[in-house]
Structures are given as structure tokens and as C-alpha cells.
Design goal:
- By secondary structure, this protein is mainly beta.
- The chain folds into two domains: about 15-145, Immunoglobulin-like (Sandwich), CATH 2.60.40; about 150-275, Rossmann fold.
- Helix content is about 10%, strand content about 40%.
- Strand 12 and strand 13 (about 135-140) form a beta hairpin.
- The chain starts with 12 loop residues before the first strand and ends in a 7-residue tail after the last strand.
């Protein structure tokens, strides 16, 4: 309901984070808090790529060069540039959802935090605040990320695999963004994985996946997500962390085949076995 002084959209407060206490080196170039010796650096999305309306990570490194700190970290879209927007004939401010997590930071420590937030305002910077006893002791805006309508996550030890696919002449509205993920960057929640239109695993050791990551992949596929698996001689490690019910075939070994000239004409070692469901399409 609007008032005579303008309007304010309701603010949602959500909690969604993965907190890892990693001993990381202090990072240069970070802004300093006014009354605390804190510094923060970070990135928005998967390697600075986001998808509108989906849960995206905000990765933060927080360093404390002062005394022990106990408080919280808040992230939200920086919608200050939207203030003054006319909505229903009235001018007011736009309140973005605020995502908050507690943080405890001993003196001299650095912690890595991963906070998930919904990308409601693509192209907007992300505001980061460190709060102690209800007062912000640090505030900084992280640069906006590149927004995409098609997001493909790739897990592979080859740093450029699948990049050629993104270079194909897609319509601009469908042009995919390829993000190369490490094992630790793969979410352990199907809700977070939903942002990906395709997850490709190419000769990547999945035996190190956590139980949460394995369950998330299973739920992701069960809810309509697309999973592409590619492997050869290392098929044992590539498939170890993938649920058997997700595999379209029972792998029993490998075979050597000649690849088409368009693919370089090299001999390839591919996994072989018997189909356990579905049909061959390639």
C-alpha cells in the first residue's frame, strides 16, 4: 500500500550460504571499513556470469586485521540507481531482497564465504555490508556480472572444452555462456543447480563429489535438468560420483575409434557397454 510520501516495495530477507573457513592470503585492493580493520573482495555469479531469476553465488573473501569480529554479512542488489522510478504514478525507492548470514572472524583471519542470492536485477552491482551490533561497519558494491539466458556448466580438466560450442552462430537470445566449474563450485542443492540449462562432465573425476553434490545432481536430472557425460579410459573415476540410475548404459570397458576428419581425425578412446535405458541419438 502506498503512502503520501511515496512507496516502498517489501523487502525479503533470506538465508542461503555456504561458509568455509579457509586460510587465504590477504587480497590487495580491497576497501577498508571505517572503524574496523576489515577488507572484502568478491565476485558475483559463476565466474562473473549470472542468469536472471535464478539463484547465483556471491563469493567473498573477508580479512580481519583487527580484533575478533562477531556479526553478519548482508548482500543485495544495489538498486540505488532505480530510486526515483515512477511506479503507479508515484516516485519512491526500490528495496531489493537482502540475504544475510552470520560470520565469526578471529583476529588476523581470512574466511571465504559463498552466499546465494536470486538474480532479480541483472546488470546491477551487488551491495555487500558487514554488520556488527546492528550497525554497518563495512559497505562496498561489487561490479555487476554478465547476464545470460542460457547457462552451461562444465566440469573438465581441460580448460577450454566446450568453448567451441558457445562460438556457434546461435540466435542472440539463445547464445550460451560456458562456465568452467571446479568440484567445490558445484552446488549441493538442486535448487541452485536449476540455473544451469546443461551440466557437462568431461573426463572429470567425480569420485570426490560430496553426498550432497551427488544427491543434487540426481534431483536436478529428475526435475528436468540435462546432464551430459563424456569419458574414455578414465571412466571409473568419471562415473564414480554419478548415480547409477542416471547412466543410460552400463560401462564395461573402452574401445578405440577414429574420429571424423572435422574433429581432427585422431584416434579416440571411448567408453563402451550395454544400454540400460533410453535410446542412442548420436
Amino acid at each position: 500500500m502506498s503512502s503520501t510520501g511515496g512507496f516502498r516495495l517489501p523487502t525479503r530477507v533470506a538465508l542461503g550460504a555456504v561458509l568455509a573457513g579457509l586460510a587465504l592470503p590477504a587480497l590487495a585492493g580491497a576497501a577498508q571499513a571505517d572503524n574496523r580493520s576489515l577488507s572484502v573482495t568478491g565476485h558475483v555469479g559463476y565466474h562473473d556470469v549470472t542468469k536472471q531469476g535464478e539463484w547465483m553465488p556471491v563469493n567473498l573473501d573477508i580479512t580481519n586485521r583487527g580484533g575478533d569480529f562477531q556479526g553478519s554479512v548482508e548482500v543485495s542488489a544495489d538498486t540505488s540507481s532505480l530510486n526515483g522510478t515512477v511506479v503507479k504514478g508515484q516516485t519512491g525507492s526500490v528495496d531489493a531482497a537482502v540475504y544475510q548470514i552470520p560470520v565469526s572472524l578471529p583476529a588476523g583471519a581470512t574466511k571465504h564465504l559463498r552466499v546465494y542470492m536470486v538474480a532479480d536485477y541483472p546488470g546491477m552491482p551487488v551491495a555487500v555490508r558487514v554488520v556488527e551490533n546492528g550497525h554497518a561497519v563495512f559497505a562496498q558494491a561489487l561490479p555487476s556480472a554478465t547476464n545470460t539466458g542460457t547457462l552451461i556448466g562444465v566440469l573438465s580438466d581441460e580448460p577450454t572444452v566446450f568453448d567451441d560450442f558457445a562460438a556457434l552462430p546461435f540466435p542472440s537470445s539463445l547464445a550460451p555462456k560456458i562456465v568452467h566449474l571446479t568440484k567445490d563450485e558445484l552446488p549441493d542443492s538442486q535448487v541452485m543447480l536449476r540455473a544451469f540449462d546443461l551440466i557437462a562432465v568431461n573426463d572429470f573425476a567425480t569420485d570426490g563429489f560430496t553426498s550432497g553434490q551427488r544427491a543434487a545432481l540426481t534431483d536436478y536430472v529428475a526435475n528436468g535438468g540435462s546432464l551430459l557425460l563424456g569419458t574414455g579410459a578414465a571412466w571409473h573415476k568419471t562415473l564414480a560420483g554419478v548415480g547409477a540410475d542416471l547412466l543410460p548404459m552400463q560401462v564395461t570397458g573402452t574401445s578405440m575409434i577414429a574420429s571424423p576428419a572435422a574433429a581432427g581425425g585422431a584416434t579416440l578412446e571411448v567408453a563402451t557397454g550395454s544400454l540400460s535405458g533410453g535410446r542412442a541419438w548420436l
